[in-house]
Amino acid sequence: MSNARLEHLNVTVIDPDSTARILAQIFDWRIRWTGASIHGGRTIHVGAEDTYLALYSRDGAISMEAQTYDRRLALNHVGIEVDDLEATERRVRAAGLEPYHHQDDEPGRRFYFRDGGGLEIEVLSYGF
Q: pLDDT digits over 82-115, tens only?
C-alpha cells in the first residue's frame, strides 16, 4: 500500500468567507477555490499547496443545538501544526480572537481558539 495522507476536511461553517479570511491571515494560507456546492451551498477551499479545509455553508439555517463532543459524527476541532507557537498566538490575538486551554506536555505544546462561528482550532508545535 502506498503512503496515505489527509488531503482535506470538509467542514460546515456559519460564514465561510470570515473563517477563510481568519485562517488565511493566521496561517499564511491562501484561498484555493470558491464555488457552488451540494444542496444549494457554497464552499471555499483554504489551505496550503498539498492540504486544505473545505469550508461549506448551505442555504438555510444551520443547527448549533448540541455541542460537537455530544453528537455522533461531529467534528470536534481541527489541529494545525506550526513551527512558532508564540508567533501564531500573536496572530490569533491580532485577528481579535482569544486563545485558551494552553497545554505544555509530551509530545508538544498547544492552545485552542474559535473562529467567529464556533469552529474550534487546535494549534500545536512539536519543536520545544
A: 999 999 999 999 999 999 999 998 889 999 999 9
Task: For the chain, give the mean pLDDT.
Answer: 90
CA distance linking residue 20 with residue 30, whole number of Å: 8
Query: Residue holding cell 507557537?
Result: 85
Q: Is 0.85 topped by the overall pTM?
A: yes
77-106 b/e with 16+ CB inside 10 Å = b?
A: eeebebeebeebbebbeeeebebeeeeeee
CA distance 51 to 45: 10
What DSSP designation does 66 have? Answer: S
